[in-house]
Amino acid sequence: MKRIGFLLLAVATLSGVFAYIAHASGQSDGDSSPIYGVKIPAGYRGWKLIAVANLLVAGKVDQLRAQLGNDIAIKAFKEGKVPFPDGTIIAAIHWTRVPSEDNNKVLDGPFPGAQSFVVGSPVNVQFMVKDAKKYAASGGWGFADFTGGKPGDRALHETCFACHTPAKDRDYVFTRYAP
Questions:
Q1: Cα distance between residue 67 and residue 145, in whole Å
Q2: DSSP states of the chain as a string?
Q3: What is the pLDDT averaged over residues 140-167?
Q4: What is the pLDDT of residue 28?
Q5: What does the pLDDT average to over 106-119?
Q6: Residue 53 to residues 32, 151, 157, 168: CA-CA distances in angstroms?
Q7: Residue-wise over 73-86: b if at least 16 C-beta within 10 A, else e?
Q8: In the predicted structure, residue 43 carries a pLDDT above the cut 60
Q9: Residue 17: how many CB atoms within 10 A of its CB?
Q10: What's residue 67's pLDDT?
Q11: Is the pTM of this model over 0.70?
């Protein structure tokens, strides 16, 4: 009986060690993106804000977007360091943009005609992970796009690097730090 107890304790301890290693690497236990193998980083929602944006494509897209960065990314943005150092991770969270009738009512008194918009339903979350050696073929960046916690398909991920090519002079990063 002592042997079974010891074996169960050993298995539980090893499971804890492996779970710690997985989370210490900054990667979650979930699925990874095709091509790049990027997973949703553990704790990314607690990262610091880099910038906020609104993407509007008439009749097609109306989104509010927030870009967050891990400590390495924030330091690089603050110092204006380009290229970004290995270990940089940038997250972009996208939501639909919806009007806020409640805010509009409150604002109508002091600001007649004001229109307020807030985040609606989540659209997706995207990640850029800097590892110059691992992702040499894509400018040193690995990409990921997740909807509902699941990675997009291979065809979607094949467009990532090409989309970021116009920002090559900024190490393929569109986002600019909002002080």
A1: 14
A2: -HHHHHHHHHHHHHHHHHHHHHHHTTEEEEEE-TTT--EEETTGGGSEEEEEEEEEETTTEEEEEEEEE-HHHHHHHHHT-SSPPTT-EEEEEEEEEEE-HHHHHHHHTTSTT---EEEEEEEEEEEEEE-TTTTGGGTTEEEEEEETTEE--HHHHTTHHHHHGGGGGGTT-------
A3: 97
A4: 54
A5: 94
A6: 26, 23, 22, 20
A7: bbebbeeeeebbee
A8: yes
A9: 10
A10: 98
A11: yes
Unique residue bearing structure tokens 């979350």:
125
Q: Alpha-carbon distance 139 to 128, whole Å?
A: 11
Tokens at 128, concatenated: 């850029």
Identify the residue whose tokens are 């097609």.
Answer: 60
Asked whether the predicted pLDDT for residue 166 surpasses 80, the reply is: yes
Total residue count of the chain as it appears in this document:
179
The one-letter amino acid at 67? Q
* Residue 91 CB contacts under 8 Å (≥ 6 apart), including other chains: 41, 44, 47, 67, 68, 69, 125, 126, 127
